[in-house]
Amino acid sequence: MDVDAYLARLGNPDTGLAELHRAHLMAVPFENLDIHAGRPIELDETRIFAKVVGRRRGGFCYELNGLFAALLRELGFDVTLLSARVVTAEGNLNPEFDHLTLRVDSADGPWLADVGFGDAFFAPLRLEPGAVQARTAAEYRLDEGETGWTMSQRLPGEAWRERYRFSLIPREFSDFSGMCRFHQTSPGSHFTQGRICSRRTDDGMVTLTDDRLILSTGGERRELPFNGEAPFADHLRDHFGILLTDDG
């Protein structure tokens, strides 16, 4: 891996875990554009690096957290791939390997890191059961139960909401191949239902869908509807620096 090129893609942040995590969320979008362009996504570090760093694209959890894990290892961190099961808005639990998240062990303890979960925590969470940890406008809590761990989020003025459940069983990158294919091809996956591209900003998030640009800033949300591919391409270029070509 060309570590210098990867760090340049992130804006050359300091190489502490929190700094890298924040920079990744702000520089590399969470997006599913290849799925809707019919370009297969494979769990191959070289191909993902070429996409995210070489072509300055983004990706979804398997790509983003898989590549981030490789970078952290190159920088001397002890990283373990973990399987997580996302809790849906209806309270249902998705299958094993539905989401890839990371345990990172450093001199100051174990952490949960995740740069591939859309609107999740800006900085890593200390892997400490029951502790409420503030991250920008939201609070997070990791709870340990008989069957594993739960990551919960509380937005201002709202109740706690379970976001996903995970275990600390070490996984291999290839273990996620089946669910990676599922999310690219199945009508049962929300990733096949429409395009999305989002990234964090200093005080919010910018999100692009098939028909609207959503700007969240300082707790305020603005939705700007549009029609057609031309404005979609313009927003993709202006807010995410992505110029899609036939090669991606």
Word description of this protein:
By secondary structure, the protein is α+β, with helices and mostly antiparallel strands. Helices cover 27% and strands 30% of the residues. The chain has 7 helices and 13 strands. Strands 5-4-3-2-9-8-7-6 form an 8-stranded antiparallel β-sheet, covered by helices on one side. Helix 4 (45-54) crosses helix 5. The longest helix has 14 residues, at 61-74. It is globular, with a radius of gyration of 17 Å. The mean pLDDT is 94.
Short structural summary:
The chain has seven helices and 13 strands. It has 248 residues and is α+β, with helices and mostly antiparallel strands.
CATH-defined architecture? 2-Layer Sandwich
Top CATH class: Alpha Beta
Distance between the termini: 21 Å
How are the strands ordered across the major sheet? 5-4-3-2-9-8-7-6
Our Rg estimate from Cα atoms comes to 17 Å
Beta-strand portion reads 25-35%
User: Please, what is the average pLDDT?
Assistant: 94
Unreliable segments (pLDDT under 50, ≥5 consecutive)?
A: none
**How many individual helices?**
7
CATH fold topology? Arylamine N-acetyltransferase fold
Structural class category: alpha+beta
Tally of individual domains: 1
How many strand units?
13
| Shape designation | globular
H and E order: HHEHHHEEEEEEEEHEEEEH
Question: Which sheet architecture does the biggest sheet show?
Answer: 8 strands, antiparallel
What level of helicity do the residues show?
25-40%
List the helices and strands and how they pair.
Blueprint: H1 3-9, H2 17-27, E1 30-31, H3 33-37, H4 45-54, H5 61-74, E2 78-86, E3 99-106, E4 109-113, E5 125-126, E6 132-135, E7 138-145, E8 148-154, E9 161-166, H6 177-185, E10 196-201, E11 204-209, E12 212-217, E13 220-225, H7 229-240
Antiparallel strand pairs: 1-10, 2-3, 2-9, 3-4, 4-5, 6-7, 7-8, 8-9, 10-11, 11-12, 12-13
Helix pairs in contact: 4-5
